[in-house]
């Protein structure tokens, strides 16, 4: 009798498990933020850190100064009312999901890795990239999911410059002659100063 009850219980459990729908995973954009004055100015104080926020795919996620318009508010008068937007999309003839980033600032260029975006320029967001505008640095990393109804964002705060952590070279201006000063000095050659009228 006990064996019969055990078998019956297993059958009920297995049939109930088959009826439960498989939960879809949701694409999450992990965003690590850095600003050199983040401690003094508290520019990120309105953002929720270490907490996934779910959004519908038809929402355009807006980042900027205006809390009435933007989902993600940056508390800084130097930031545009809407600095940039993120749109979730699916690639044409593909099941791959991704994000598109658009610069909405008329006064500040948006730099995605090494690509400069002017006002209203947009680009597909790479799987992992650094975004810069003004003194702001944002490391964005996409964690892929299956849902075509929702996406999520999750914020973290960096304690040091993201450019230094990734060991990216600081850009040095190259003079008109096209020779980098660091290259000249490393080879032991001293630059010759010339007046522009001598050229």
From TrEMBL:
Keywords: Cytoplasm, Immunity, Innate immunity. Signal peptide: none annotated. It comes from the Eukaryota. It holds the Pfam family FHA. It is found in: Cytoplasm. Coiled coil: none annotated. GO terms for biological process: cytoplasmic pattern recognition receptor signaling pathway; innate immune response; positive regulation of canonical NF-kappaB signal transduction; protein homooligomerization; tumor necrosis factor-mediated signaling pathway. InterPro entries: FHA_dom (IPR000253), SMAD_FHA_dom_sf (IPR008984), TIFA (IPR033621). The keyword Cytoplasm applies. GO terms for cellular component: cytoplasm. Residues 62-134 form the FHA domain. PANTHER family: TRAF-INTERACTING PROTEIN WITH FHA DOMAIN-CONTAINING PROTEIN A (PTHR31266:SF2), TRAF-INTERACTING PROTEIN WITH FHA DOMAIN-CONTAINING PROTEIN A FAMILY MEMBER (PTHR31266). Belongs to the TIFA family. This is TRAF-interacting protein with FHA domain-containing protein A. The lineage of its organism: Eukaryota, Metazoa, Chordata, Craniata, Vertebrata. The gene is TIFA.
């Amino acid at each position: 009798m006990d064996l019969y009850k055990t078998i019956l219980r297993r059958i009920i459990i297995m049939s109930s498990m088959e009826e439960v729908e498989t939960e879809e995973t949701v694409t999450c954009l992990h965003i690590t933020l850095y600003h050199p004055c983040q401690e003094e100015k508290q520019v990120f104080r309105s953002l929720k850190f270490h907490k996934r926020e779910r959004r519908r795919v038809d929402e355009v996620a807006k980042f900027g100064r205006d809390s009435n318009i933007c989902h993600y508010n940056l508390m800084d008068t130097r930031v545009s009312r809407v600095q940039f937007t993120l749109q979730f999309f699916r690639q044409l003839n593909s099941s791959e999901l991704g994000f598109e980033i658009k610069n909405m600032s008329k006064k500040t260029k948006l730099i995605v890795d090494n690509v400069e975006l002017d006002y209203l320029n947009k680009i597909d967001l790479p799987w992992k990239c650094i975004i810069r505008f003004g003194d702001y640095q944002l490391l964005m990393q996409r964690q892929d999911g299956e849902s075509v109804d929702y996406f999520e964002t999750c914020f973290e705060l960096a304690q040091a410059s993201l450019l230094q952590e990734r060991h990216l070279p600081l850009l040095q201006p190259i003079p008109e002659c096209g020779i980098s000063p660091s290259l000249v000095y490393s080879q032991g050659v001293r630059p010759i100063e010339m007046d522009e009228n001598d050229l």
